[in-house]
């Protein structure tokens, strides 16, 4: 029996499960970026009074997000350092409360004023063009607000059980929340489809059922993170006295060992921040009296099947319709992602990681062929090609593109964002990635005096934020490690940019080269140098 079945262990596990499922950081990041853009637009178009009012709202949001980051830092440190359960519980609740308060601020009709001021801006304004993505983020955060409220109610009454129709609820929750998440997380590359939805009334905690279903969809989307296109099929089918919920993806599939790990591993959650979703799925399936199975073929896809008991003869018509509406998003927040007139987004934000950061791209970019990563196994977005194409598409007087990138030690793209310079817009890395701009490598591709492209690379600004972003344990956070990690990551970035479409002969200005490449005398006093030279430097592991 796992150690989270009862008492304080169970409370801590429930806090961890909820935090793992909320996936808010990327959405808050996008909300902040949108309002930075909106405030800039108000200034550009001389809406002075609106800009002053909105600036006050923007500063309030920044304060809230600062408190949010601190709350998560305290919580994650407590978990990773194996602090006492009561401490983890206290800090986890504090973090959830801070999320709830931040959602409440953003959702307040008296804050942000975007609906009112957008009507004064022309269609060409960046904030007007990106309002669809902003509304998707708002819709998601409203769902987060609802889930936290329900979680609090559940803590006060752990025996929350009700009858609901599985097909009706999956349809509602998918249209209100899940579809928007899939669109944003997968850069509109993954399509979510219903094969069939047989009606069947089941009994249990509806909010936990939704979170379980959402975890299945998240796993399916994650399985296709390196693919150009993908489909997730969802179905419910009555099979005798059981109803089968199936979620199928055409992703990379899993080995038998991985299936066994998902179905049976994890006897303790101590020290764990990640890989909690399937533990919650298993626990919830058991609470509903169901059975879970996984069928998967490597290279072809995976089907997750949950068999749940249902009430024969009971139909949705016999249920209280008011209960159904209780769990719906308000009409104004529904189905932004499903609207036909999707606005083309001017940015590309790609996250390929074990985090919940959402992703954004223009429709054209979302269809580009990926390029093989080191080893030819992983397929991923063509970062170098996108940097170059953003530079070429720039409408600024002095064209260029700005990007931010992070690469893991196993050569995966952990974060990648890029934008072209635009007319009358002096974009900064804080605009590009407000919550991470001090923790990741930043770059620009600009024209030199001969109107040829030249690359500018800058290392992370904050050692503390870099270590937090990379989840380095507290005792290992020393300057020597920072120098080594930043140096190695800079080399990996150069290799990745070349491997994904950037010319290795492009000249580079590398900020702080003497600090991070002390032993590489070829960098000293010779800038700019060729990108290929940086890519051919040896990593620490290659030197040992």
Describe the structure concisely for a colleague.
The chain has 544 residues and is α+β, with helices and mostly antiparallel strands.
Detailed description of the structure:
The protein has 544 residues and is an alpha+beta fold. The chain has 3 domains: 1-158; 159-336, Histidine kinase-like ATPase, C-terminal domain (Heat Shock Protein 90, 2-Layer Sandwich), CATH 3.30.565; 348-543, no CATH class. It has helices spanning 7-22, 25-44, 48-80, 85-107, 114-118, 126-129, 131-156, 166-185, 206-222, 256-264, 277-287, 321-326, 363-366, 383-392, 429-432, 463-470, 479-499, 513-516, 531-535, 540-543, and strands at residues 162-165, 190-197, 201-204, 230-239, 242-249, 291-297, 301-309, 348-350, 371-372, 379-380, 400-407, 413-420, 441-447, 453-458, 507-510, 529-530. The strands form 4 sheets. The chain has a 7-stranded mixed sheet. A hairpin with a 2-residue loop joins strand 4 (230-239) and strand 5. Helix 1 packs parallel to helix 4 and helix 4 packs across helix 7 (131-156). It is globular and about 80 Å long. The chain starts with 6 loop residues before the first helix and ends with a helix. Mean pLDDT is 79; it is low at 269-275 and 335-379.
List the helices and strands and how they pair.
Elements: H1 7-22, H2 25-44, H3 48-80, H4 85-107, H5 114-118, H6 126-129, H7 131-156, E1 162-165, H8 166-185, E2 190-197, E3 201-204, H9 206-222, E4 230-239, E5 242-249, H10 256-264, H11 277-287, E6 291-297, E7 301-309, H12 321-326, E8 348-350, H13 363-366, E9 371-372, E10 379-380, H14 383-392, E11 400-407, E12 413-420, H15 429-432, E13 441-447, E14 453-458, H16 463-470, H17 479-499, E15 507-510, H18 513-516, E16 529-530, H19 531-535, H20 540-543
Parallel strand pairs: 2-4, 14-15
Antiparallel strand pairs: 1-3, 4-5, 5-7, 6-7, 8-12, 9-10, 11-12, 11-13, 13-14, 15-16
Helix pairs in contact: 1-4, 2-3, 2-7, 3-4, 4-7, 7-8, 8-9, 9-11
